[in-house]
Amino acid sequence: MSTNIPQNSAQRRGFRKILAMGTLLLATAGFSGIAQSASAAQPGNADITVEAVGYNTHIGDNYEGISVGYTLGGDDALQVESVSVALYSGTTLLVTNTSKSTSQIINKAGQFSTAFRTWIGTYNSTGTWNFGDMSWTPELELKPTKAVVTLTDSAGGTYTGEKTTPLSEATATWEQLVGVTSGETPATMAVTGGTLDITVSTGSVYLGAAVPGQSTPRTPLGDMVITDARAGQLGWIASAAVTEFTSATVTVDGSPATIPASAVAYTAPTADMTGTVTVTATSPKSVDSAAAVQTATAVTGNNTATWSPTIVVTVPAQALAATDYAATFTHSVS
């Protein structure tokens, strides 16, 4: 679409007035821009554009840091008097660079960049930019997420464009820029398993007294403790056995009087457990030969189980009286 420009002076004055009422814009390609102050709409400043051309990390002999580039254009670009470029991490302002003079802002190509330097080599732009904070030290957790370019025209109007695409890391990663480097070193180790043990009560236990044909009181035998320190997944079985009771003072045909082991009833309660393990009791039962009384399954790693069995002895009807019947209980684990 074309526009016919009026030829007489009155018409030309009217046309200039229309231009003066236009809105100054920052145009496109990565930056989004809007006029920031009403004073921007002044005669001769209706055609100013800014276009993003770079936003990246940089590591080289000239400098290390962040580079922000932009292209300034439009018929009225000569009216721009200053440029400010700021880096943000979210809403946190990191550092600002501001141009020094119009002659350094405007050139034939209209392309510009500013370096936010963390290390200075051969790069020299001291005639172009006032660096807002030369002590800026980037932090790993404050990675730049936005670059903001603000133009100021000769009438005092300001225009802001933002670059919010992700920071380019083609030259160097952000971690490299902040001095965080990484490397991988393979390492191996071993976990050694211990042993499977049982601890029993060793003190003598009095089971009480009963007449032939009757049973002794139910009596605790003391704590039995399984300690599985194998750091594995294998289960275990705890067993118990008892000998026959014999008397040292009463004999039958020259042999000690006895009460058979089968007269003993062993009751194992539910064990108290630690670690990842399921322990199931099996009782009441005869333990005249080795019999399982606690069984561990679903084991993961070290575990323990503690229980105190109770004992009842049914005295045979033909048993001889004696006060010193004795037997031995044996517990084992495998």
UniProtKB/TrEMBL annotation:
Signal peptide: 1-40
UniProt keyword annotations, A-Z: Signal
Keyword Signal set for record: yes
InterPro entries: TAT_signal
Top-level taxon of origin: Bacteria
Name this protein carries in UniProt: Htaa protein
Source species of the chain: Rhodoglobus vestalii
